[in-house]
Design a protein that fits this description.
The chain is of the alpha+beta class and 369 residues long. Helix content is 40%, strand content 24%. The protein has helices spanning 15-22, 34-41, 92-109, 125-133, 154-159, 163-173, 185-202, 210-219, 259-263, 266-280, 297-307, 326-353; strands at residues 7-10, 46-52, 57-68, 72-78, 113-117, 137-139, 144-149, 178-182, 227-233, 236-245, 249-257, 285-287, 311-315, 319-322. α2 (34-41) crosses α8, α3 (92-109) packs parallel to α4 (125-133) and α6 crosses α10 (266-280).
């Protein structure tokens, strides 16, 4: 690709045009949607960069801007940029070009601290080398996940489940549970009821708002809405899952099971139905989004069994940072320190609140990316 043929467009695009461009990318996800960004951070805090040539849009990036007047601030992007076009060979030169454009715009021109968390896993040498060549520093993240390959046929995927997991799935299928699915608010209400009961029962620390995601669901274009799947026993919702499929990889957003759902193994049936739905919609992989063997061993075992021989455990590639403004750097590091200690304080308070006289402290987790 001729570097001189590229054009960079910044903040001269609306939501409709953004989503039209975004649909062309295999690595697009809910975290780069206009709806997600505007609901979570406010539309005024967003910046959008588009890399074009005369033939097509080559890459896109949605960035959150947090400024301190006169002194600097941070530009933050999670699971971007998007640069892998559907049904086309991805070009490392496109990645280099969009990384350079991001650095020029937010670090050089605006004087911000730029932090990027790409939607890649460890071992991606191509992404590592592209960022390092453009002057970014790499820092590891302790975020791990299971990634399931959904390209084999369904019968092969079922055989690839962990044997004990498959046994529990067979048990659930004999319980006569009803499964309903869709994108509407009535289903979201059912999910919220199961999820809130689970939070109260288990005493989780949750940093992701269910009600915020309800509004995100309302704002997403129909083609990008999250899929809600509910299992019911005697017309009562007992397990629920919300999954996002926009690019070629699906992401688990929320899972929830109430006491009766656990008893009836409803989560096993539910996740198998999710996989059936993803296969029917051409999904190539399923990211289970977040595992912690120590803090949440039960969830870890469940996800490991679901992945079975079809998946692998992996760590996120980490984050890449660039900054030329020392004040912006100091502001970000102070913010990181305060954020870390706030989360630790919440964990400790939750342990005290949910302590049981005859057992160890309750488990905690962070729900979602």
């Amino acid at each position: 690709m001729n570097r001189m043929s590229c054009e960079v467009v910044v903040d001269n695009i609306g939501p409709g045009e953004w989503e039209q461009y975004a649909g062309c990318f295999a690595d697009y996800s809910i975290y780069q949607t206009w709806a997600y960004g505007s609901v979570r951070y406010g539309e005024s805090a967003l910046s959008h960069l588009v890399l074009k040539n005369s033939d097509a849009v080559l890459a896109i990036a949605q960035v959150r801007i947090l400024r301190c007047p006169l002194v600097g601030g941070i530009a933050y992007m999670r699971w971007g940029p998007c640069w892998k076009r559907r049904n086309r060979q991805s070009s490392p030169e496109v990645l280099r070009q969009v990384i350079r454009a991001l650095r020029n715009e937010y670090v050089v021109r605006r004087g911000l601290f730029l932090r990027i968390l790409p939607n890649e896993l460890e071992g991606d040498k191509e992404t590592h080398s592209a960022f390092e060549a453009e002057g970014f520093q790499w820092k590891p993240l302790m975020e791990r996940t299971f990634l399931i390959d959904l390209t084999p046929p369904l019968d092969v995927l079922r055989k690839g489940l962990d044997p004990r997991w498959r046994t529990d799935l067979n048990t659930a299928e004999r319980k006569g549970l009803t499964v309903i699915e869709g994108t509407g608010q009535e289903l979201y209400d059912m999910f919220a009821s199961v999820y809130n009961e689970m939070l109260q029962r288990k005493g989780f620390v949750d940093f992701v708002s269910v009600e915020e995601h309800r509004y995100i669901q309302n704002c997403l274009p129909e083609a990008f809405k999250m899929q809600i799947v509910i299992s019911k026993a005697d017309n009562e919702p007992i397990t629920a899952a919300i999954t996002s499929l926009i690019g070629e990889t699906a992401h688990a957003i929320f899972w929830a099971t109430n006491a009766r759902g656990r008893e009836m193994k409803g989560a096993y049936l539910l996740q198998w139905r999710v996989i059936e739905w993803l296969k029917a919609h051409g999904c190539r992989s399923y990211d289970l989004c977040g595992i912690d063997r120590k803090r949440n061993p039960g969830s870890y075992r469940f996800k490991a069994g679901l992945a079975g021989r079809n998946g692998r455990e992996a760590q996120r590639i980490g984050q890449f940072e660039a900054c030329e403004n020392p004040i912006s750097r100091i502001l970000v590091k102070c913010g990181d320190f305060l954020r870390f200690n706030y989360r630790q304080a919440r964990y400790r308070c939750n342990k005290v609140i949910h302590a049981r006289p005859s057992s160890i402290f309750g488990k905690q987790r962070i729900s979602g990316p």
